[in-house]
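Extended Data, record CN hydrolase domain-containing protein
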Amino acid sequence: MRIGFLQYNPVFGDKKGNLERVGEMLSREKNAFIVLPELCFTGYVFQDKKEVETVAEEMVGPTVGYLTPIVRDNNLFLVFGLAEKMGEKLYNSSCLLSPMGETRIYRKAHLFDREKLFFTPGDTGFPVFDVEFDGSRVKVGLLICFDWIFPEPWRILTLKGAQIIAHPANLVFQYCQDAMVTRAIENRVFIITANRAGEERRVEFTGRSQVVGTKGNILIRVGERVEGIWTVECDPGEAKNKMVTEKNDVLSDRREDLYAIEEK
């Protein structure tokens, strides 16, 4: 299975221009699973909730409508972030779009810093989705950016059978990419972190999008400022092997009997 990411520097508020630019890049790719950054068509550094409302849309809206023929014609599975409007609520969401036009959604559970002023914390839990890629079924989990600092969602997705975790991001700290190596080792899964590049309203993003293998090996990592699409071949079946040694399994060796916090 060919998996990878798109890293670029979107223009704040220019959804149409950003969509056209990404669409042009995606049109050159075929038969792949590609992850895009968090809020990748709207920009990220909002000044107030009203700014979010001007660019937010329902999950099946203009963005999905624009991307659907591209993923269909090029046999792409796409994961991308967007500002989702659901009634009166705004969510920082991620969408999995298949070549058949099917959409699956995850809403960000752990909001970062000023996101708490605009977005409602996610209510989807941590679902795992079945993806049929060239006749094989692969289980995919979705997380977004600051979810990275909490080990629980990664373990929950792993316990639910996730083999690949797609991680759209707008990272500003320098150490998340290294932390993803640990998350992959802990759970023996593939992790695709798609970060954005550049600067927006004096906020600098760290780029360095990457794909990490099941043993913490970095399969691809790019620079901070580069833009483009990068992919690598992987065997998702490797994520079913949770063995560290012949006698140690990262899931079955857990001591759940000792993990409860005792009340005094």
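Summary. The chain has one domain: 2-259.
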